[in-house]
Design goal:
By secondary structure, this protein is of the alpha/beta class. Helices cover 36% and strands 20% of the residues. The protein has 14 helices and 13 strands. It has a 7-stranded mixed beta sheet, sandwiched between helices. Helix 11 packs across helix 12. The radius of gyration is 23 Å and the shape is globular. It starts with 6 loop residues before the first strand and ends with a helix.
Length: 380
C-alpha cells in the first residue's frame, strides 16, 4: 500500500476527520498521525483544512490550529459563515472542498501518493483527476460508524481505502479514561488513589510501528507496566523479555526497567492482550473479549507484520479469535509454531516470575523460541 521511497502528501479535511473520529469514539493525536506517515514514505507536505467563525473572539479550535501550524502542518483556513435556518436553528457554513482540491492538483506533479482524510463523495472527481496524472490516491475514513462516514463512490474510486478504526492504535489519543470494563476501571481508580504518580491507564504498545514481529503478552503488571506506562517495564518479566530481544538483535540492549532508559526495539513491537491491569493478574473472559477489538486494530495497523510471539495461552487464544481461526486447529504449546493466513505464530510460556521460579520456563527454553523466530525472519 505504501512504499518507503515514494513522495507523500496528506490532505486533511479537519471537520470531516474530527467527525469520523468522534463517531468511532476516539480523538486524533496529530503528532502521531504525522509521525506514522513519515514512517510510511517521504512526507513532502501535510495540509490541514478548517473554517473558523470570524465573529468569535476566541475559537475553541484556535489552540489546535496554532499547534498544527507550529508542528509541521500547512494550515489552510477561511472564515466560516454563521446563519439561522428556516426552523430558527443556528448553523455554520464553512466548506473547504475547493481549497483542498486546488492544493491537491497543484501538488500532483511533485508527489507519487496523495492521502485524503475525508469521506466526502464530492472528492471522487478530484481522485479521478489525480489518478489520470499518475498519482496514487488513498482515502482515510470509516465504514464502521453508523451511518458510514465515507461515500461508496469515493471508496470505489480511490486506489486504497484505509479504515480509520484500524489506525486507532497508532494515531489515536490513548484512552486513559476507558470504562468499557467496569471492574478494570474501578481497579485502576483505586490504584490511582493509592499511587497517583503511577501511569494507571490502558498501556499502549511499544516499539517499531513498521515491525515484522509482534510480541503479545497477557496484561500490564500492577507495579510494572501499570506503574511505568510501558509494556513489560518495571517487573521481572521485562528483564527476561528485553534481555532476550537484545540477544537476538531485536533491541538495542538499553533496558533498565525505566521508560526513559533509551530502549529501542528493532523490527518488533510489544503489546498485551488486555491493556488494563486486572486484579490478581487475571482478566475475565468478558474483559479479554472486550479488549480484542484493540488487539485487532493493532494487528491491522502493522503493514509489515509477518510473525507474532504469543506469551501464554490467553494471548495465543485471543489472537486466533481475532483472526476468526479455530482454536482446535492451533493448540497452544511452548515452542510450537502455527500458520494463520500470512502470519506465523510462535508460542511460549509467559516469562513471568512465577513460571521461571517454578521451572516451567527457563531462560534457555525462552531463548529457543526466539532463536526459531530469528531464523524464520532471516529466511524471509
Amino acid at each position: 500500500m505504501f512504499y518507503r521511497d515514494e513522495r507523500l502528501a496528506l490532505f486533511i479535511d479537519g471537520a470531516n476527520l474530527y467527525a469520523a473520529g468522534r463517531a468511532l469514539g476516539f480523538d486524533i493525536d496529530y503528532k502521531l498521525l504525522r509521525s506514522e506517515f513519515i514512517r510510511r514514505g517521504k512526507l513532502v507536505r501535510a495540509f490541514y483544512y478548517t473554517a473558523m467563525l470570524e465573529t468569535d473572539e476566541y475559537s475553541p479550535i484556535r489552540p489546535l490550529v496554532d499547534w498544527l501550524n507550529y508542528n509541521g502542518f500547512a494550515m489552510v483556513t477561511k472564515p466560516a459563515k454563521e446563519f439561522t435556518d428556516s426552523m430558527g436553528r443556528r448553523k455554520v457554513k464553512g466548506n473547504m472542498d475547493i481549497e483542498l482540491a486546488v492544493d491537491a492538483m497543484e501538488m500532483a506533479p511533485h508527489v507519487d501518493h496523495i492521502v485524503i482524510f475525508s469521506g466526502d463523495g464530492d472528492f471522487k472527481r478530484l481522485v479521478e483527476s489525480l489518478q489520470r496524472q499518475g498519482v496514487r490516491v488513498s482515502v482515510v475514513s470509516t465504514i464502521r460508524s453508523s451511518p458510514p462516514m465515507i461515500a461508496d463512490e469515493l471508496r470505489r474510486q480511490c486506489d486504497n481505502f484505509i479504515e480509520l478504526e484500524e489506525l486507532r492504535e497508532v494515531i489515536g489519543r490513548p484512552p486513559r479514561d476507558c470504562a468499557l470494563c467496569p471492574r478494570l476501571a474501578d481497579y485502576r481508580g483505586a490504584l490511582a488513589a493509592k499511587h497517583p504518580g503511577w501511569f494507571n491507564a490502558p498501556v499502549p504498545s511499544f516499539g517499531d510501528h513498521n515491525a515484522r514481529i509482534l510480541i503479545l503478552g497477557l496484561a500490564p503488571g500492577v507495579s510494572g507496566a501499570n506503574r511505568t506506562g510501558r509494556p513489560f517495564t518495571g517487573d521481572y518479566a521485562g528483564d527476561l523479555l528485553y534481555t532476550t530481544l537484545a540477544k537476538f538483535g531485536f533491541a538495542n540492549n538499553a533496558f533498565r526497567a525505566d521508560p526513559t532508559d533509551g530502549l529501542e526495539l528493532r523490527d518488533c513491537i510489544v503489546s498485551n492482550a488486555v491493556r488494563c491491569v486486572p486484579p490478581g493478574n487475571k482478566p475475565t473472559p468478558a474483559e479479554i473479549a472486550t479488549c480484542r477489538g484493540f488487539l485487532a486494530a493493532r494487528v491491522s495497523a502493522l503493514p509489515c507484520l509477518r510473525a507474532v510471539v504469543c506469551l501464554g495461552r490467553i494471548a495465543h487464544e485471543t489472537l486466533l479469535r481475532a483472526f476468526g481461526a479455530r482454536l482446535a486447529d492451533h493448540p497452544f504449546a511452548h515452542g510450537a509454531r502455527h500458520a494463520a493466513g500470512d502470519l506465523a505464530i510462535f508460542d511460549s510460556y509467559h516469562c513471568s516470575r512465577y513460571n521461571t521460579n517454578t521451572g516451567r520456563l527457563t531462560a534457555p527454553m525462552f531463548e529457543a523460541v526466539f532463536a526459531d523466530l530469528r531464523g524464520y525472519i532471516d529466511g524471509l
